[in-house]
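Example record

Each entry pairs one chain with its bound ligand, NAP.
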Amino acid sequence: MININTKIKLNNDVKIPIIGLGTYQIKNGKECEDAVIWALENGYKHIDTATIYGNESSIGNAIKKSRVQRDEIFITTKLWNSDHNDPQRALDKSLKNLRSSYIDLYLIHWPVEKVRNETWKILGKLMKEGKCKAIGVSNFTIKHLNEILKSTNVVPVINQVEFSPYLYQKDLLEFCNSRNIYLEAYSPLTKGRKLVDKKLVEIARNYRKTPAQVLIRWCLQHNVIVIPKSSKKDRIKENINVFDFNISKEHMELLDNLNEDYRTSWDPTDIV
Ligand SMILES: NC(=O)c1ccc[n+]([C@@H]2O[C@H](COP(=O)([O-])OP(=O)(O)OC[C@H]3O[C@@H](n4cnc5c(N)ncnc54)[C@H](OP(=O)(O)O)[C@@H]3O)[C@@H](O)[C@H]2O)c1
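Structure tokens for the complex follow.
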């Protein structure tokens, strides 16, 4: 049985909370500080950001202001595409912004052609130096993962990809499971766009839960780490209130069948 404090042990023994706050498009400054503080007040112990989101410094400030200790919080940030020429400089900048001496999880944000495998080796060195506790990738397809696995013996701990019933990437999930790479679901709420889908609304009614809560729970029941984003206090609270119900096998299957390869973000399929 999972609960609000459940953590997953990654392939290098680092533990990650199964749910975190996504922060894409949360504005640096008061909006982001408030969101992170509300999240911490409501039991979140995991914050997902990226250099390109431009809000690392507010996340650092919010954590300093909160009563939660840094080592109780799991922070993910990501190396941006234009920073592959100097990952160490990029990571140092993120550390400064986040006001921390380490990042819990550092991800390659996108499988940038030609350079990604070399970058991966450099991230391995930065991890050995203690600047990050774990390294992983984002938006990698099976092809990209196979390539990286061949080039090194450091297996990514996580592949963060878009994942929801409307983009049920079953083959990728099975591949990652078989290689001990955890899948992490971004845009699990389809950026809010499918929350009015009748079939989803109907299922949610059975559990007296909201469509958003059902989408988050669906990820968790697939053993996928999930990072819903909201900048609103009530929704931040709502989105972590997903541990008092269990979606039945029948409803899980109905949700699985909503797949229509629906993406809200970028598609890495054709990246060579
Ligand atoms: N690695 C990557 O390439 C990548 C790409 C995209 C996202 N991500 C990460 O994944 C996180 C989540 O993905 P996302 O931000 O794209 O989208 P999302 O979490 O699927 O959806 C966020 C949207 O849903 C709304 N929302 C949140 N909770 C709701 C609720 N309970 N009821 C109704 N609406 C609700 C939010 O509005 P309000 O804020 O107004 O509540 C926002 O518009 C990001 O924030 C980011 O950290 C990573």
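Residues 9-256 form a domain with the TIM Barrel fold (CATH 3.20.20.100).
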